[in-house]
Design a protein that fits this description.
Elements: H1 3-12, H2 22-45, E1 53-57, E2 62-66, E3 72-84, E4 89-92, H3 105-116, E5 126-128, H4 131-145, E6 149-155, E7 158-164, E8 168-170
Helix pairs in contact: 2-4, 3-4
Amino acid sequence: MNYFSQFLHRILRRTPDQMPNAEALAFITMAYDEMLTQHREHAATWPHGKERGWTADLSAGVIMFKFDGDRTGTAHFQTIGTYNETTASFTWAWANDSLPSALRKHAKLAKKWGATHRHSSFLNKTVQCTMEDAWNFAAVTRKVANAKSVYRGRVGSEFIFMTTDEVHLDTEVPSTHWSAGRRRASW
C-alpha cells in the first residue's frame, strides 16, 4: 500500500474499495508538493517562517506577521481548521459557527472537494489524525481555493491552519490600525 493509501486507511479505517480514488490521491500529493514549493519560494524572497509573532483581525479577515525590527507583513486569510495536539484531531472551519462565514469559504470548498472525491476526512467535522494529515488537508484547501499560501499559527495546544493571499511587506509598523488599508479581500 502506498503512503496515501496508508494515510487514508489509518484515518478512515476503510477497505481499499471504500477509499477515495487514485485521482483524489494524486491530487493530494500534487497539492502538498505545490504547497512545499510555495513555502520554499516565500522563504527565499521574504522572511516566511521567520516571523516573531502574528495577529489576526477576524472582522477584516487580515493577518499580520511581525518580523525582526519593525517589519510587518499583512495578507487576507481564510480559516481552514484547527489541529489539537492534545487530542490529535483536526476540526474543519466549515463546522465552526463561531467564525464569521466569510472566513470559512475556503474550508467549504475543501468540503465540496471531499464530497466529490468520496473523502470522508473532508466531510467529518472533526477527524482523528496526525499533524502531517492536517498539512495534507491544508494543501488541498489551498489548491482548490487557488490561494497563494498556507500558514499554521499556534494558539496554546492548537494550531490554526489558514490560506492567505499575497503577503504585503511593510518596512515599519503602521501608525493607524494595521488592517485599515486591507479591508477588501482579493479573492
